[in-house]
Amino acid sequence: MIADLVLAISGLLGFSVSEQEAVEIFDGLAQDEQSEIEEMPSYSPQINTGEDYTYGFFNPLLQLENDYEDYSWELQESREVADVSNFNPVNIGGLYFPESEVISALDASTSQSNHGGGCGPRAIIGICDYFSRAMSYGFETNPSSSTSRIALATEVFNTVTTHETSSATLTYVGGFRRGFDDIVSNHSLSSLICQTKMYSVFGWRENGFWANIVANISEGMPVTLSTYDGAGDFGGHYSNIFGYEIWQGFNSTTNEQITKKLLKAKMNWGSSGNPFEYCYADILGRKIIGLISYHYTPTGSYDFSPSAAQTAFSNPIYPSSDTSNVVIAAGHGWLTNRLRCGVPEAGKIVFSPNKTGFGDSYLTINPGHTINELELGLSAYGFNEGFGYETIQIQYLKQYGTWENHVSFMATTLPLYSDGPQSKLFLFPNTTIQIRVRIIHPSPMGNDDSGRVVLSAMTVHYVGFDYPYPVLENGGETL
User: Hey, is 466 helix, strand or coil?
Assistant: First the structure.
């Protein structure tokens, strides 16, 4: 069946393939196909009915209102990788990676592409550029430098195997994956960064694809969507998915509710294209579709527990300022600095910025090594805390001693402590050696400790112990 499928596709595309090329096209598709046959449900799901979901759009509300006229719509959930890393992938050929640089790289490379290098290599450029911008990994020496960006694009065009037709530059999934792996290896990053794939021939894996996308976006990792055909922008294209949205529709006449899931993608069209496009997640139910996921794995981790903090903090209640060394494990301690942050009860590190004369509360940690990922368990202490306007800021100390606001969100988005903490993950540049969890109240009032946010768990993931203890800031003043 695989052979028949390959022959059919090659005929449609207007070129012949050898047996070896057939293997490269699908890169182990035989195993995927067998797995998919085993998973195939006994009933016939409502997908692949002939509707083409490869068409993209720019305004989700307007599109939903046009496609489902009898429904009113409300956004229920929206996530992007920037919620974790403070960066989204750029549009290759757009403002931050101009098309002129892509063409310069193409001219300098060995690529024979007559179609802008092909959407496969351009997608890989976008992913490598993301790792450089978000986590400072050396695919580009400096993502702000045109010379550095051109060097990355040239490397990708030289590395990724493509095939020319009269109308397109094709990249088979196998060639895409091997090209990415080779580039990662060229930069000695194979122990930290890798890719995996999901593939569907028959279109039965829509739910699995969606779960994969949601999981990766929540970890700050974009994914690359590969489609074989379709009349829309997403058809026969590699696009970098960096976010998703879930919308709820309500029909007031019938009281019917429906849910629509949307994907947000960088299309890498070039300077004339829009920065990103939406498409319906129904596209994930199409036949012959692939998803390449990227994974980042730091080498070690330490947990910062409330019990360890309670033992170490010289003043467990909310101090105006305090510096303590918290023993995390035998022979290893974290230097901490805090303001209006304490352990008033066992099992809770509590921030309390809402008090007259303050409006600020933070916990700074310096573990003595890089901080590449940070996991937090956060919740709101309770009702009537006055934290309606509080902002939670995740910050890191830059090279010259200034604090960078990395990711911010409102305290009102947190669940109550009684309902359990919300897990939050953050990615940092690989030179980060100090981070601060800061909570700011714009108009603090009252003499009670309020506006409280609970930190139930903290885990720092690191790559190496390459950095000594730096100078720690104390409430904005250097110790």
Answer: coil
Tell me the pLDDT band of 303, cut-offs 50, 70 and 90. Answer: confident
Asked if 168 and 329 count as a contact pair (C-beta separation under 8 A), the reply is no
Displacement of CA 283 from its chain's centroid (Å): 20
CB 428 within 8 A of CB 371: yes
Q: How many domains does the chain have?
A: 2
| Predicted structure pTM score | 0.87
Domain containing 433 equals 300-478
Strand, helix or coil for residue 453 = strand
| 114 plus 171 within the same structural domain | yes
Domain boundary among 296, 323, 350: 296
Domain boundary among 272, 296, 320: 296
Q: Which of 90, 94, 171 is nearest to 127 (CA)?
A: 90
Looking at the structure, do residues 201 and 323 belong to the same domain, yes or no? no
Q: Coil, strand or helix: which one is 249? A: strand
Q: Give the Cα separation of 312 and 140 in Å (integer).
A: 42
317 and 264 part of one domain: no
pLDDT digits (tens, 9 = 90+) for 429-457: 988 989 999 999 998 887 778 889 999 99
